[in-house]
Amino acid sequence: MTTHRLCALQKPLSRDATQLLVSNSSTESKLKILKTTRYRMQTSKRTRDIVTRRSFIGLGGGAIIAAACAQARGMSSAQNADKLVLPKDTEVRTGGSRMIEIDGGYHVWTKKVGDAPIKVLLLHGGPGLDHTYFECFEDFLPPNGIEFYYYDQLDSTNSDKPSDPRLWTVERFCHEVEAVRKGLGLEEFYLLGHSWGGILATEYALAYPQNLKGLIISNMAASIPSFEKHFNQLRAALPEDVKKALEKYEKSGQYEAPEYQKVVFDQLYRQYICRLSPWPEPITRDFRNWNQKIYSYMQGPNELVCTGTLKDWDRWADLPRIDVKTLVLGAKYDEMSPDDLRKMADLMPNARAWISEKGSHFAMYDDQVAYFTELLTFLKPA
Description:
By secondary structure, the protein is an alpha/beta fold. 47% of the residues lie in helices and 13% in strands.
């Protein structure tokens, strides 16, 4: 501010004004005017130089320096962007996919997603489906600092397919899960089983509790008879013409008839398996890859008719033995009874239940945010 005031006070006269003063003055006065004018012009020039230097330092200089720094950063970023990021060792990368050897010399497919201290192994449903419908987990777990593993069970899509019914037992599949755990080197991990995978998760928690940090049973009751009872109640609530159509084909064993399949899908699966329309792509892709041989052997022709080897599976009496921290997930429109799932949590010493108010068997899709909010809260407690 002082410098600008000085400039105003010492502003030199214009050339015309100076000539006018000189022409109207005495010789002595003319000399004095010329000296004064020359002094003011020199002073003004020095002042402008000062202002220019100060302005550069205070304003322009800072801007130029900032611009130079930004340019340098830009060059550095460009150099970093151009720099290749490559492994420092010679190990062959597979995107996280690994084949794990299990008993009998067979191999099952696994894939690691994310890299974090919290680790979750996923057990898919079916039997005979694969990991595909779990793909939505990629959008929720890794961004929240959770590492998880896909795993296709024996005779499912990416794993070996001996197609030997002698291998299709709950006990053997449970041992398979343990072989996968060992192969992946998992300790103190979370195990999440959905549907048929919930049966395996329950069996694993009873057989190998020492390895678990937590257990998640998603959309699976503690027994097949309980599941059948509830699904039969849902069936009984169907319109009479729909029930008659189902009975017609079931009596003659025509489970593959297109008309029967359409009724089952439209009247039951769309209501209690997944309520979205259309179904999410990972679900439809999984259903296309479904190994129906193992499903028919262990479950039956469909969810309505359970005639397979699983029909007598029942672990209600053993639930009090599962004392690991457990979350039981269910849904109002699931094929599993919400009351059964609440009862399961009550019977386990360290468990709680959550029931989706608008979801179904695939609540991870048709009530997605609520489902994952509950799951993440369990995996990452405050």
